[in-house]
């Protein structure tokens, strides 16, 4: 029996990421039960302490272990929440991983590592200026990942 193609989902702590994961589970996994068409790998990219601190001056070495511990704690919370979401959708065979590095590079590298057929990421819905200043993981992946990239946008709430 041939192995299933891999679907890779990038997650972080934002609501857009949670929505993208839930949407993916609802549309590609929940309807199929144990016969889902993809092997699911969910990946969280944890920033390095140095990148989180930016250019710190004197005393940075004293703070670095605290920042590192906080980033590990936050990543563990994201992984735990991700597992809870999967469990609530009756998806129990998802592989959840935490990798250290910039999300753009971590996701594109994981696509190659797992030979993923599709990469799913959420979208913050930034405009062109914010995207240019802050960078966009989804935009970067759409241009650099060696697979199909699906960008899931959370619908805007109408008032």
Automatic annotation (TrEMBL):
Residues 7-153 form the UspA domain. InterPro entries: Rossmann-like_a/b/a_fold, Universal_stress_UspA, UspA. It holds the Pfam family Usp. It comes from the Eukaryota. PANTHER family: ADENINE NUCLEOTIDE ALPHA HYDROLASES-LIKE SUPERFAMILY PROTEIN (PTHR46553:SF3). This is UspA domain-containing protein.
């Amino acid at each position: 029996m041939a192995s299933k193609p891999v679907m890779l989902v990038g997650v972080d702590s934002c609501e857009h990421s949670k929505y993208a994961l839930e949407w993916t589970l609802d549309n590609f996994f929940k309807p199929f039960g144990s016969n889902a068409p993809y092997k699911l790998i969910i990946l969280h990219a944890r920033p390095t302490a140095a990148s989180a601190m930016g250019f710190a001056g004197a005393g940075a070495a004293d703070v670095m272990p605290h920042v590192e511990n906080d980033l590990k704690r936050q990543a563990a919370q994201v992984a735990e929440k991700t597992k809870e979401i999967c469990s609530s959708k009756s998806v129990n065979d998802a592989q959840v991983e935490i990798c250290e590095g910039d999300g753009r590079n971590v996701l594109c590298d994981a696509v190659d590592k797992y030979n993923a057929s599709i990469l799913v990421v959420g979208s913050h819905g930034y405009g062109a200026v914010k995207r240019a200043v802050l960078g966009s993981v989804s935009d970067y992946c759409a241009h650099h990942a060696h697979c199909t990239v699906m960008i899931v946008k959370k619908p805007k709430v109408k008032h």
